[in-house]
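Practice set, problem 2.
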Amino acid sequence: MFISDESYSVRLPGFFGDGQSAWRMLERQSMDPWYQVVRRICEGSGHRIEKLLATSASVLVGILEDRNESNSIEVVQVITPPWMNATALDRMETLVELTAGYDHSGEYVLLHKVECGVVYTTSFGGTSGTSLLTEAKTIYEDPKRNAPTVPECSTALMPKNPG
């Protein structure tokens, strides 16, 4: 969840539309992965780009389900916490595939495959393969994933198996 502070609110009543307000700063306290979705909105003969921040995979699902002929998803990025990406900082990477399922102990697990091929898992038991999950379901798959060029991963970025 994102937390807002009233002192960072932009006070322009009605400027952003009914029920909307703007904030110059938000706080995030969770150590779970979250997502940035870049969406193209077609308006007449033109378009605009909006960036949506989703605090969880369930919010991401809602955004993905909202696609129609007038809006499309340009890219989904996942922001992984240090415990998940085996670095000292949060890391933002292009999401190629998001799969959900249950591991051998019944824990709900998300597998995040990023552009360079690394798979980050929410499992503390180290489950990082879809074959190890029951009731596995693909939540998101990048339609551009078969693009000819995929950047190399540095071995320094490869997550360590927590198990």
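Problem 2, part (b): a different protein.
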Amino acid sequence: MKCFLIALSALSLLVGGPSARANSSVNLSATGKITPSACEPRLSNGGEYDLGKIPAKDLNLDQPTALPVQTLQLELTCEALTLVALKPRDNRSGSSSDSQYTFRFGLGRVNGNEKVGSMVLDLQSILADGNPMYAIGSEGPTGWAPTDIISPTFITSFTSSRSIPNLAPMPIQRLTADLRIAPRIAPANTLTLTKEVPIDGSVTLEINYL
């Protein structure tokens, strides 16, 4: 079954009283794009990184504690060559203990408003249709810049060149990449550690058709 995407623009209607007879009609427009192919993302290990149990005594008291970096395999498979980007959503938004760094994702909250930690996601060893690729990021449909990280503040696409004057997404059909997950726990003196504290990071990677 073929899949397609239709985007509708926001509509604004003006309603006038009896004296506003000149405004007796209003235009409605529906805009969007129908993409000829759909893409499906996959992550190895079901997208899970189980950190196991971390003894509280192993945490740094007054600075973050870096945890082992885990690599998952990311795969994007499209029905045909397609211009796509990854649009991340932090499902624990506002819980990053490093909130000054907007590219970090949160690891959840405990005991009211204690922030457990944060994690960084970055892409390495990107291949698309047998060719090396590079990640680029943008806060909108234009204005791309080189990046290795995935951030909740911008979309990430792919190109074969890092030449800044010509940075633009390129269509792909099958892409693979190493998705590196680098978590760290907040300083121990910011957490109540009298009982087990769950680590609860969650990110959704949505396909955005360009």
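Answer key, part (b): Confidence is low (pLDDT under 50) at residues 1-19. The chain has one domain: 39-209.
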